[in-house]
Amino acid sequence: MINVTVWNECRHEKEDADVQECYPETIGGCIVEGLKPFGFNLTSATLDDPEQGWPQERIDNTDVAIWWGHRYHDELDDKLIDKLQQRVLEGMGLIVLHSGHHAKLFKRLMGTSCNLSWREAEGGERERVWCLKPSHPIAYNLPPQIELPLSEMYGEPFDIPDPDELVFTSWYQGGEILRSGCTFTRGRGKIFFFSPGHETFPIYRNPHIIQVLANAIQWSNQAHTSGWNMKNWGRPVPLEKGAPKQTYFKKPRKLMLAEKAAQKK
User: Fold this and answer.
1) How far apart are alpha carbons 161 and 127 in whole angstroms?
2) Distance (Å) of CA 88 to CA 25, 27, 63, 83, 235
3) Which of 86, 63, 90, 56 is nearest to 4 (CA)?
4) Residue 93: helix, strand or coil by DSSP?
5) Nearest Cα to 52, choosing from 74, 24, 29, 85?
6) What does pTM read for this prediction?
7) Distances in Å between the alpha carbon of 132 and those of 152, 177, 180?
8) What domain of life does the native source organism fall in (predicted)?
9) Helices 207-220 and 27-35: crossing angle, nearest 10°?
10) How far apart are CA 219 and CA 160, in angstroms?
């Protein structure tokens, strides 16, 4: 069974009446409820939980993380982001939703600003999510396009690296488009960015959107843990007989600095 942590900032639900009305069970709670029929081991977490929702045991045991954040990205502790980034590199799947494009973790993994254009039109506007790769695992059991009557516009240019694969593109009523379903690989970890999901529209109640998330969980779950993690690997002894060997060993830089500091005392 895949261990899935649904991390939701969960401040809108405390501060904004329109979000409370749309998602009385919280955004994360709605996503968890929608995913229950798919047989995942689901855990909810929020920014205001102890350790910002990420105690070490949860970090270690999460196979796939779903991330929804918006106003309070900067509150995430940098040391926590270091730990989560390392888990992605080691193979934890990551699904970043909507305004999570500005999450510290996502920007760290992308290496860019992740800025885009946006418009929050009064009353919302129509979004059409087109599936560009119907044979892709994330596109399983989906129609050619998903119609969202009310959405927030996210548009190009979107400052991200070229995706490994572009699974979905969105068109908006105002004429803009966005690369709205993008996959990336970092180390052993698979990452999926999916843009639909404004907090005042019931997008996560759409069964097709939940199907996308369920598919993305299956896709981003690490297939196996054998082999090497992407770590610096000293190999003083070569594979081939007769090849030159490394006959000296440099001390690690941290050890050398510690020894120098001790000598000064």
Assistant:
1) 23
2) 28, 23, 9, 9, 25
3) 63
4) strand
5) 74
6) 0.91
7) 21, 13, 11
8) Bacteria
9) 80
10) 21
Q: 154 is written with which tokens?
A: 């996210």
C-alpha–C-alpha distance, residues 72 and 37, integer Å: 31
Distance of CA 231 to the CA centre of its chain: 22
Return the structure tokens found at 109: 């993994």
82 φ/ψ angles, rounded to the nearest 5 degrees: -55, -45
Q: Which two tokens stand for residue 256?
A: 């050398």
Long-range pairs, 180-187, Cβ under 8 A, ≥24: 180/129, 180/154, 181/129, 181/138, 181/212, 183/138, 183/219, 184/109, 184/110, 186/88, 186/89, 186/109, 187/88, 187/89, 187/90, 187/91, 187/229, 187/230
Report the amino acid identity of residue 95: I
CA angle, residues 197, 90, 179, in degrees to nearest 5: 30
pLDDT tens digits, one per residue of 220-264: 999 898 887 767 777 778 889 888 877 666 666 777 777 788 888
pLDDT digit string, tens, across residues 71-96: 999 999 999 999 999 999 999 999 99
- Note the residue count of the chain: 265
Spatial separation of the C-alpha atoms in residues 261 and 255, rounded to whole Å:
10
